[in-house]
Amino acid sequence: MKIGNDEMKTKDFFYNLPEELIAQYPIEDRESSRLMILDKDKGSIAHRRFRNIIDYLDRGDCLVLNDTRVIPARIFGNRDGKDERIEFLLLNRVGGDRWTVLVRPGKKVRPHNRIVFGNGLLKADVLSIEEDGTRIVDFKYDGIFKEILNTLGEMPLPPYIKMRLEDRERYQTVYSRVAGSAAAPTAGFHFTEDLLNSLRSMGVEIAPLTLHVGLGTFRPVKVDNIGDHHMHSEFYDLSDETAEIINRTKEHGGRIIAVGTTTTRVLETVASADGRLGAQKGWTDIFIYPGYRFRAIDGLITNFHLPESTLLMLVSALAGRENILQAYREAIDERYRFFSFGDAMFIK
Prior knowledge:
Layout: E1 2-3, E2 34-38, E3 45-49, E4 62-66, E5 68-70, E6 74-79, E7 85-95, E8 98-104, E9 114-117, E10 122-129, E11 135-141, H1 145-152, E12 178-181, H2 193-201, E13 205-211, E14 234-238, H3 240-251, E15 256-259, H4 261-270, E16 280-284, E17 287-288, E18 299-303, H5 310-319, H6 321-333, E19 344-347
Parallel strand pairs: 1-17, 2-19, 4-13, 4-15, 5-12, 15-18
Antiparallel strand pairs: 2-3, 6-7, 6-9, 7-8, 8-11, 9-10, 10-11, 13-14, 14-16, 18-19
């Protein structure tokens, strides 16, 4: 589902980022990451620390979180009887032990091949090649798949992170609960349990939903006109309880603040024209870019995104492209840390 100005160009969302500003590791204290405050109406900017987010939220506001949990979805094996190293990235379960996976090198993996992992602890039969180049595979194993994956798998860090992550939990939010993502909802990295409890005690509602992050996070925009880009579907689940909290917040005049673009995509998928929500689960391929009119959210907590990415387009739809690009220029001048393990922005 595409909603926006189809005539905009991908190059309209380019900016130059010095490589040394790409954060390679998470900072020790989650709350102490930097926080840029961007007023989407005025374009004004302030610089704080993330723990100061408490100063920008009010009693009666609702903070909506994505409670997905990243699985160790990157596994390495060999084609049965061959020595070539094959990498799988598990994207989503399609039923039973069948999964959609990204494969490298793809040319070496064809239907009817068997890939062997961990000296036979796990095997995968390749069933088909999809139009987008992903494979549907059927896993074979003895025991419990989750435990085997925890033994064999690595956390699927983005390719721009070159350093090894020693503590897997640092690529999880503190509120991660529902396993199934191939990437983390990184805007939530800055929260601690203490900070969330402080927000609750001052009357801010905390409402969870689930979106399992998949291929869309890894896929760059390769077309000139952004309206020609195809977003992959990702599974989401929004409960009755969360829908009721959000609707009640709106009725009482509170703001809906989404933590992350993944949360935003679920809320905007489910919201009716008047902004009300009901419990719903399914698959969303919503692509939000400038020209879109938001129905559910009033503000957004997010990280700093890659040039020409769908995530940069989404935040530009909320705050205005010029405001966002100006904010990014200032972030570069102020030496903010960028991308997954980087600093945060609150668009209010």
